[in-house]
Amino acid sequence: MPNLEESTFRAVGMSDEKMYGHPAVMLAGATPEEQNAIRALMDAKGLAGIAAIAVTPATINTTLDELARLPDATGFGVAAKLPRAVVMSGLRETEFHALMNSYRAGDLPRPIWATVTPTSGSWTIKALLIELLKEGEALRNATRKTDDESGAAVPA
Length: 156
Description:
By secondary structure, the protein is of the alpha/beta class.
């Protein structure tokens, strides 16, 4: 299984540089209503030509590179019980931030944000979601440990 430590993940900058991959926004765990809301946000931010793809049980074992090449609205209307994530491929860094900021300004549930890299492009979306969840748990545990060592109150 892939490991985030072996990946090329990095913070997304603010340049007009195009990120790796075929242009697409992949949605995991989004309800049909959320799928439509994200598509509307994309259109409003000038991303109408970028495919929005919802991950379904039929595509869970598809690689990110393959998933990004599916037609726009693939999987829309299907609510899959998956971790909520927005995975962006081939967007410009400025487009990534514009969409993320618009999403956060809306009344949508908080997802995990990720971008496709040359390393993760060959991973299945399922493998990526598993690793992102593991990374999130590791970060939460590290934060708890730091709070414990500093004497700060730790939420129950």
